Amino acid sequence: MKFYLISVLCLIFVNTIFAADEVSYTGTWSASQYFNGDLPDIDLQNNTLRQFLRVSIPGEEIRFHFSNLYGKEELELKSVHVAKSGGQGTGKILVDTDTEITFNGKSAVTIPAYSEVISDTLPFAISTFDELAITIYYGKIPEDFTGHAGSRTRSFIELGNAVSKETFTDEHSFVRWYTIAAIDVVDNEKKYEALLCYGDSITDGRGSTNDKQNRWPDVLAEKLQSNPATQHIAVLNGGIGATTLYGESTPKSPTGLGRFEKDVAEQTNVKYMIVLYGVNDILFNGIDAKTLINAYKELIKKAHAIGITIYGSPILPFKTQADYTEEKNEVKETVNAWIKNTPASEGGFDAVIDLASVVADPNDEMVFNPDLCDNDGLHPNYLGHNAMGNVADLSLFMDKEDTEQANVDKKINKKVIVKCKAVKKY
Ligand SMILES: *[C@@H]1O[C@H](CO)[C@@H](O)[C@H](O)[C@H]1NC(C)=O
C-alpha cells in the first residue's frame, strides 16, 4: 500500500517534468528477464561481470535498464561501465570508449527486491549494429538471480573491481547474461519505432552461432537496415527458451501471455511485434487447438489495445522431433490454418510472416529440413536462422502510423523510474 502511494506521487511529479523536457526514447536492444537459477561457478558478489550485446539502431545518447525482477533481496551494483567491444567472443573492450554509467549522478545503485532501474541518459554515441560491453562490479546479490540464460554471447568474470580493465580472461566465462535488460536511445525527433520478436528458444537464438549475432531476429534487423525505407525500425528480442504461450506463468518460465505487460507493453516504443509461439505448448504441454487459438486471440487483443501491429508466423514443422505424435501434428495444422486464414477483423493477426515454410523439408513439409536444422527436428541451425530472418516482406514495416498517445503514455510510465530514483515493483 505504501509503495503504491509513493508511486502515484512520483507519477504526478514526473508528468510535469515530462511536459517540460519531452525526452523520447526508442529501444535499441532488449533481453527478456526470468529467474536464472544457473549461477556462474564463481560468486558474482564483489566481483566484476563483463557482458556483450549488439544494438540495432544508432543514437547519440543512451540509457540502460537493469533488472532484479525476481530477486527476493536487493541487488547492489557498485560500479557499471559501458564500452565498445574489442572483438567478438573476447573479453576485450576498446578502452578509449570506456564510460561510466550513472544513476541520478551516482556510480552505485541498489535495486530493491522484485524491481528494475533505468540509468541516467549518457552521451555515448552508438552506430547501427555496434557491439557493446557492459561491465558490472557487484556488491550484495540476492540468492534468486535475474537474467537471461540464452545470451548466445560469452560473458566474463574478473575478481574484485575490474570495470575498466581492457581484457577479461576466459578463466571464468560462460554463455549467459545477468542483470542487463534493455538499452534505449534518445529519439526526440521520433525517428524510430521498435519491432519486438516474441517467442521461445527459436526466437531466443538456439541453434545460431555463439558471438556471431545471427539469430533470426538479428538477420531480420540486418535486412531492415539494408533498406532505407525501414532503417527506422529497431529490433528487440523477446524470446525466452523453453516457454509456452499459454499456461501457468512462473519466474523460471513466464508464458507469452503472462509476461506481455513486462516484456512487450513496457519495452520502449514498440510499434510492431512478430509472434512465433506454440510449439512447446503442443509438444510438451499437450494443449488442444482451441485453447491455443484462444491464447493467440488474447495476445492479439492485448497488442491492439496499446496500438501495436502484431504479425504471426505458423508454427515450424516438428515431425522428426522425439515427442512428435500424429495428434500433436494435427493440433499444429489446425492452429496454423487459423493463423494463416483468419483476418484481423475476425481476431487474427494483422498479417502472416511465414517462418515455417522456409525451413520445411521440400520432400515432407511436416519435417524440419535437416540441412537447416540443429539436429533435434525442432530448432533451426544458423542457416535456418538466416532463412527465417530473410522471410519478411519489408513493406509490413513502412507504415509509420500515429500511435503517439500510446507511446507518450509508455514514456511517462518509464520516466517514473528515472526521476523518482526508484523503481517499479512487479
Ligand atoms: C563482499 O564485500 C563485503 C564488504 O567488504 C563483505 O562484507 C562481504 O563478506 C564480501 N563478500 C564476499 C562473498 O566476499
TrEMBL record:
Protein's UniProt keywords contain S-adenosyl-L-methionine: no
Cross-referenced InterPro entries: GDSL_Rv0518-like, SGNH_hydro, SGNH_hydro_sf
Pfam families: Lipase_GDSL_2 (PF13472)
Keyword annotations from UniProtKB, A to Z: Signal
Domain SGNH hydrolase-type esterase: 197-386
Keyword Signal carried by entry: yes
Signal peptide: 1-19
PANTHER family for the chain: GDSL-LIKE LIPASE/ACYLHYDROLASE, PUTATIVE (AFU_ORTHOLOGUE AFUA_2G00820)-RELATED (PTHR43784), GDSL-LIKE LIPASE_ACYLHYDROLASE, PUTATIVE (AFU_ORTHOLOGUE AFUA_2G00820)-RELATED (PTHR43784:SF2)
Protein name, as recorded: Lipolytic enzyme, G-D-S-L family
Organism: Anaeromyces robustus
